[in-house]
Q: What sequence folds into this?
């Protein structure tokens, strides 16, 4: 991301140099003559982003309205922050924040480091074919749909399912109804996520490891560094910028627990720990058609996410020189 | 990377425990998939009586598969999904390629602000409800395949990966083609695309898998069951436990047992196409492709 910034600046410099001494209108005209094909090619892309990204951003002003779809944005009544205060005062507010945070932080603690550790360990495997086998197998679950993943969980954790059979054969005792226990929900959510994404998530770190200068390892070996020291002092520092970038992004989405998987996983019994902000938005907006209110909850969530991202980015820039922008 | 000199004892212990740990990981990852395949091929009655682990099918029966492919929902779902994957991926890849190519060119005056506005959407978006209102009401795409194909057409992260790939092609190639009289579109199609084929292949895979596995847009925009993709039918079968349509023909006592094998067979039928394709593209994942994500 940092390099994207640099190329943007370089381009700007080149463009300025080429057009030095021209009036702004002439610059635009020359650029159009030179690049009209490029702009025509870009047109559908611009339309896409305008319609499907920026129109909805504009559309989120209904958060400040008693929105009536029949009247549209221009015809609906503006009610200021009423939707927001309603949400803050509702019974659900505290519970949603808590559930979102618990699931997200558990995922941060278990889900974020897992692919890093896997990448470091994969990198230490000496026999190539075995390494590729481990990679092929651990990437597989990434290609399984969420519907199938949750379906497998429902089936394996059923009363007479695989998990309970194994538990009764080894430990004994009553079958555990995993999917109906609110206290287990965050763990099921996070651990199934680790199972599905540990391999795929490790790819980006493996890619980062391949960019480390091999002479560093040679020099370290000459100096008598053992494998642990090499991991600790070469491999890990080598992928630290990648880790930090991904950590910034991850922290920025602390309050952005997705709804798709939870929607399939939760049920009335686990709602008290499973319901997060995004699933609440879905129920209120799509199912109950309370558009202004649900848009307000969604906007509140987006603003928090963006703020968190900006803060963690600023923090990281202050600590070192790695940042998104 | 590592010396061929004698490993110290602690390093030997590390290597062996590492291999052991990886084997455990492989087992945990692979076993559920193996279980499903074995169970789907098992004899329903034997499977119902069986308790515990399963490495090979108990008995052998492809009854469940016959039932699955005779199920009208699965047939409809398969047909629809293939259409959504085909049309969706074609549009996604085209738009992403166009955007990535243009934004990788030098000396484009408006590139900077456009790139900023595109990257900004990765970090801030209008959210579910305004998008839902736009697609379902303003555009009126309820019960329209368009709702499943157009709104998510460009994944900005993919666009950035591809843009990085285009940037790595030497600029001289563009100049040479231009001297030969090629316009920008011809430069893209005839010169650049052939050079980034591996990245293009991975983009196709990413988008195709995304469409194949997607269920949420279909859930909120489609009412007509004839338009449902596989994943929605799958949700009914696996999570809401509605295997009735596939079990009504059997004698009542067997219904439950058959339902189990049918469930597993359905998972296999729906997941296998992707798991078969992806290993062939695997070598491209690390090399070059996701590096684009880091650099970009």
A:
């Amino acid at each position: 991301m940092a390099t994207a910034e640099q190329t943007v600046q370089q381009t700007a410099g080149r463009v300025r140099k080429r057009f030095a001494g021209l009036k702004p209108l002439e610059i635009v005209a020359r650029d159009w003559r030179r690049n009209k094909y490029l702009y025509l090619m870009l047109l559908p892309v611009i339309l896409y982003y305008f319609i499907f990204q920026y129109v909805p951003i504009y559309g989120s002003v209904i958060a400040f309205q008693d929105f009536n779809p029949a009247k549209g944005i221009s015809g609906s009544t503006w009610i200021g922050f009423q939707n927001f205060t309603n949400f803050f005062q509702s019974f659900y507010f505290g519970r949603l924040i808590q559930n979102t945070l618990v699931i997200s932080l558990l995922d941060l603690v278990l889900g974020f480091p897992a692919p890093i550790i896997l990448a470091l360990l994969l990198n230490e495997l000496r026999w190539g074919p075995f390494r590729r086998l481990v990679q092929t197998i651990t990437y597989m679950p990434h290609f399984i749909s969420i519907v199938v993943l949750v379906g497998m969980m429902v089936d394996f954790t059923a009363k007479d399912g695989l998990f309970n059979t194994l538990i009764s054969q080894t430990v004994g005792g009553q079958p555990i109804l995993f999917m109906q226990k609110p206290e287990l929900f965050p763990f099921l959510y996070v651990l199934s996520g680790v199972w599905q994404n540990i391999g795929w998530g490790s790819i980006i770190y493996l890619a980062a490891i391949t960019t480390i200068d091999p002479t560093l390892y040679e020099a370290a070996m000459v100096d008598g560094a053992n494998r642990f020291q090499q991991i600790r002092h070469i491999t890990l520092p080598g992928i630290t910028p990648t880790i930090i970038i991904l950590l910034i992004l991850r922290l920025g989405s602390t309050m952005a627990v997705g709804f798709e998987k939870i929607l399939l996983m939760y049920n009335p019994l686990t709602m008290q720990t499973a319901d997060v902000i995004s699933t609440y938005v879905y129920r209120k907006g799509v199912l109950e058609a309370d558009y202004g209110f649900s848009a307000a909850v969604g906007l509140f969530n987006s603003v928090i996410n963006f703020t968190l991202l900006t803060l963690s980015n600023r923090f990281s820039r202050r600590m070192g020189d790695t940042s998104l922008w | 990377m590592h010396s061929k000199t004698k490993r110290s004892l602690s390093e030997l212990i590390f290597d062996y425990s590492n291999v052991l740990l990886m084997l455990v990981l492989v087992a945990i990852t692979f076993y559920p998939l193996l279980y499903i395949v074995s169970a789907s091929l098992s004899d329903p009655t034997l499977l119902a009586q069986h308790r515990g682990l399963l490495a090979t099918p108990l008995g052998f029966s492809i009854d469940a598969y016959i039932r699955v492919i005779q199920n009208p929902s699965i047939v409809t779902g398969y047909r629809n999904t293939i259409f959504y994957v085909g049309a969706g991926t074609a549009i996604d890849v085209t738009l992403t390629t166009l955007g990535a190519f243009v934004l990788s060119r030098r000396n484009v005056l408006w590139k900077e602000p456009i790139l900023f506005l595109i990257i900004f959407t990765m970090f801030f978006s209008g959210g579910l409800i305004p998008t839902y209102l736009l697609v379902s009401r303003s555009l009126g795409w309820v019960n329209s395949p368009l709702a499943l194909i157009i709104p998510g057409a460009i994944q900005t992260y993919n666009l950035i990966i591809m843009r990085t790939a285009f940037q790595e092609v030497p600029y001289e190639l563009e100049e040479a083609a231009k001297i030969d009289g090629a316009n920008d579109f011809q430069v893209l199609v005839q010169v650049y695309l052939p050079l980034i084929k591996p990245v293009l292949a991975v983009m196709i895979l990413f988008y195709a898998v995304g469409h194949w596995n997607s269920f949420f847009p279909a859930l909120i925009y489609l009412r007509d069951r004839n338009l449902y993709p596989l994943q929605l039918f799958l949700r009914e079968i696996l999570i809401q436990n509605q295997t009735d349509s596939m079990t009504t023909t059997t004698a009542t006592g067997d219904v439950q047992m058959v339902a189990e094998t049918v469930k597993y067979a359905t998972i296999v039928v729906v997941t296998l196409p992707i798991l078969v394709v992806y290993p062939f593209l695997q070598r491209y994942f690390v090399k070059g492709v996701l590096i684009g994500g880091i650099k970009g």
